[in-house]
Structures are given as C-alpha cells and as structure tokens.
Design a protein that fits this description.
The chain has 347 residues and is α/β, with parallel strands linked by helices. Helices cover 30% and strands 17% of the residues. A nine-stranded mixed β-sheet has the order 1-2-3-4-5-6-7-8-9. It has a three-stranded antiparallel β-sheet with strand order 10-11-12, with no helix packed on it. The radius of gyration is 19 Å and the shape is globular. The N and C termini lie far apart (43 Å). InterPro entries: Aldolase_TIM (IPR013785), LAM_C_dom (IPR025895), Lys_aminomutase/Glu_NH3_mut (IPR003739), rSAM (IPR007197), rSAM_sf (IPR058240).
Length: 347
C-alpha cells in the first residue's frame, strides 16, 4: 500500500475526533457532516495550528453550512449543461469530465458540495463510457478538463486508461487535470504517476492553493515532480473571507507559488452555492487585493480575478471594462456584451 492510500484510509471523517484533538464540541457539526461529507487527510489536518485558523476554516464543518439561504445548490447550472452524465459542456470547444466523485479533503466552500462525496456522484465505468462516446462524437471539443471530485484519487492504471482513451480521440488536442492533491495529499504525486503522465502531453495541471501555510516542503516536492515531468502548473485560488481576504496573505501566497514553479492563474470570487455564504466577500475586496499585488510582486504572480456568472454564462474577468456599477448588486458586462447583476454581499 502506498503512503497516499494509507493517508486516505486514516482520514478524519467524523467530527467527534475534534474533541479529542482540539478540545472543541462537535455535537452541532454531526448534522453538517451528514449533509455535506467530511474527510481530512492526516497530512492536511496536521497543518491546522489552532481551531478557527485558515486551514481549519477550509476543512472543518461549520453549522452555518445549514443556514437557510436563497442560493442555488447548482449556481453554475452544470446539471443543465450536462448533455450526458459526467460531462459539463459550457463552452463550445471544451468540456469538464467529472472523472471521480471523491476528494482527499472535502473543502467546505466547494461549488459541488451538494454531491461530491455523496451517492449522487458515483462514477461508474458505464457512465464514463457514455461520457467518452459523447466527446468522441462531438468534433468541436478540443480541450478536456478532468475534474470531479478529484481525478487523482483514481489509481494510476485507471487514470491512465482514461488518458489513453482521450488521446485516441483525434480532435482532443489538450487535456487538463484539476486536482487539489498537491495541497491536501501531496504524497499522491509519486514518481510512478509522473512517469505515466509524461506519456500524454500536451497535458496541463491546475491545482488549488488558498493560503501560504499550504506551501509546505511536501507540496513543493509534489509540484517539482510534476514540473520535471514537463507538466505546466497553474493555480486557481478561491477568495475566502477569513482565510485569504487580505493583500498581505495573497502576496505571500502568489510569491510562494512562483517559487515552487506554479503560475497563479485565477483568483475566483466565491460562487453563489448553497452552504458557502459565510465565506463570501464583496467584489471590492478582490479588486483591492489585485491592485495591491500590482507592483510589489512580478506580473507573473498576479492572477486574473474572475466571477463565474450564475446560470452557466461563463467567467467574467473583473476588470474596469467589465464593471458597470458596484453596490449591493454589482452590474457586470460579460465578454459577449450581456449585462447581468451579481449579488455583492458578505455572508
């Protein structure tokens, strides 16, 4: 058994353990974990310095996840944009392929928290066959993004079969992998995995560091192995209230990412997903952070600040030409010229 597999087996999955380790009451969190599953690897749990810190907030259930809200469980309309199970086809030339229904750590801010780790996101061989058949018969698709859940929770041989089948489709030019295991389970990035991945270029990898304390020696080694295998690395950070919503934190994060050969790619404004409202900031918070980065850090380290527009309308870059008006309801212009309103509030 590999170290990463042992980490998964020994992961924390019930809030009761928090009482013994951190001396906190867990009773109110049991209901949250029953609705939105909990899993924390021993590695990532070890990054918590104290209850309520930036790592804790990302992985420990919070009773606010169950507060009544008007937010949509599926704010990006992924299910309406799913022509077959496991495929989300929002843009003409690229699709998401939800290759795995589980993650090493279930992030409390996840857009897909309504189903990740639940029976609703069981990935079967039959469903994958249907998804791959759809991609094969849709020649406009040139870019496939493996997501989930986390596709790197697949065993090497299962992941390679998937990559081989995608590479056999003539019009699929680019494969991307979206994975948080360099952050939450860096032991998964083995030399064997990297030797396998190098056979399927052009292959790109986007990971998901949110805080400088996630930049450990083990995560740096995981990224080194991927980079040495010729895999370009990008990072997509989510702007989270109480975690990384201050310029000095983001400055340390993006500078640290470049040091481990990871290019900051996106800074995502929080999606309007049910159960995540306590993480939300105002849009001005992100704009001020990006403004504070320009100059003090290299342009290589400045991510694009974007909103994924509700209703599956795609990403809107938060630049002056796309901002019509700010207030309690931001008015934004999409790249296609459509005017939309986006709730601009905390909590």
């Amino acid at each position: 058994m590999d170290i990463w597999q042992k980490q998964l087996i020994e992961s924390l999955t019930v809030p009761a353990v928090l009482r013994d380790r951190f001396g906190v009451e867990h009773g109110a969190l049991d209901e949250v974990a029953q609705r939105y599953p909990m899993r924390i690897t021993p590695y990532y749990l070890g990054l918590i310095a104290h209850p309520g810190d930036a790592i804790w907030l990302q992985c420990i259930p919070d009773r606010r996840e169950l507060l009544p809200c008007l937010d949509d469980p599926d704010p990006l309309h992924e299910e309406r944009l799913s022509p077959v199970p496991l495929v989300v086809h929002r843009y003409p030339d690229r699709v998401l392929l939800l290759a795995c229904g589980q993650c090493a750590v279930y992030c409390r801010f996840c857009t897909r928290k309504r189903k990740v780790g639940c029976a609703a996101m069981t990935v079967t061989d039959e469903a994958l066959d249907v998804a791959l058949e759809y991609i094969a018969r849709t020649p406009a698709i040139r870019d496939v993004i493996l997501s989930g859940g986390d596709p790197l929770l697949l065993e090497d041989d299962r992941l390679e079969r998937l990559l081989r089948r995608l590479r056999a489709i003539p019009h699929v030019e680019i494969i991307r992998i979206g994975s948080r295991v360099p952050v939450t389970l860096p032991q998964r990035i083995t030399e064997g995995l990297c030797n396998m991945l190098r056979r399927y270029h052009p292959l790109y990898f986007n990971t998901h560091f949110n805080h400088p304390r996630e930049l450990t020696a083990l995560s740096a080694e995981a990224c080194r192995r991927l980079a040495d295998a010729g895999v370009p690395l990008g990072n997509q950070t989510v702007l989270l209230r109480g975690v990384n919503d201050r310029p000095e934190i983001m400055r340390d994060l993006v500078a640290g990412l470049l040091k481990i050969r990871v290019r900051p790619y996106y800074l995502h404004h929080m999606d309007l997903a049910a159960g995540t409202g306590h993480f939300r900031t105002r849009i001005e918070t992100g704009l001020n952070i990006v403004a504070a980065l320009r100059g003090p850090v290299s342009g290589l380290a400045v991510p694009h600040y974007v909103i994924d527009a509700p209703g599956g309308k795609g990403k809107i870059p938060l630049l002056p030409e796309y901002l019509v008006r700010l207030g309690d309801s931001a008015v934004l212009r999409t790249p296609s010229g459509e005017i939309i309103r986006f709730p601009n509030r905390e909590g």
